[in-house]
Amino acid sequence: MKDDKIMDKLLSRDESALSDIRSTYGKYLFRTASNILSDETECEECLDDALIEAWKRIPPQRPDNLGGWLSVIVRNRALEKLKMAGRDKRMANSMTVSLSEIGDVIADEQDIDADRLYGIIEKFLSGVSTEQRKAFVGKYYFFEPSAKIALKLGTSEKRVNLILFRLRKKLRKILEEEKRSL
């Protein structure tokens, strides 16, 4: 079902919109949660929580990209669930690897506030190729393993890792320059 029809149903408070969301975006949203959480039941709970949150937020919000907006909600719910479970430091999955990789780049940039850091990263990503942006977002936002990103991009895992290495290096340089200008 198209986003406009789902949005119309949500705005008119038609509960069938929730099942439409689940049938249209369910697999995508579940995969987003499963990149963070390892338990299938927790992923389902995340998806249910996200649907409830979407129901509460619309209206007044009307997102331009419903699937993207929902994935942000699912991702944030999954991260909250992970923190509440107290497992975030013990988990040995692609998320921990991703966070440690990007954490090495931004850890020394404590002088830069979060909003400014977000702006710098957003500007940085707007200046790279689509392939590079997809690899970066897949790895550091959705916590996807490099092999999965490679499959999506139709390239090798080695190439994805090289792209990510180079992007981290460029980002580190940009952040260091930003820090010097403060």
List keywords for this structure.
182 residues; mainly alpha; 74% helix; globular
Chain-wise SSE layout:
Blueprint: H1 3-11, H2 16-34, H3 40-57, H4 66-84, H5 94-106, H6 114-126, H7 130-140, H8 146-153, H9 157-181
Helix pairs in contact: 1-2, 2-3, 2-4, 3-4, 5-9, 7-8, 7-9, 8-9
Give a description of the structure.
This protein is mainly alpha-helical. Helices cover 74% and strands 0% of the residues. About 3% of the residues have low confidence.
Instruction: Extract low-pLDDT stretches.
Output: 88-92
Class of secondary structure makeup: mainly alpha
Question: Outline, from the CA principal axes?
Answer: globular
CA gyration radius, whole angstroms: 18 Å
Fraction of residues in helices?
over 70%
N-C termini distance: 48 Å
Strand and helix order:
HHHHHHHHH
Beta percentage is under 5%
The major beta sheet can be summarized as: none
| Secondary structure: number of strands | 0
H/I helix tally: 9
Overall mean pLDDT stands at: 82
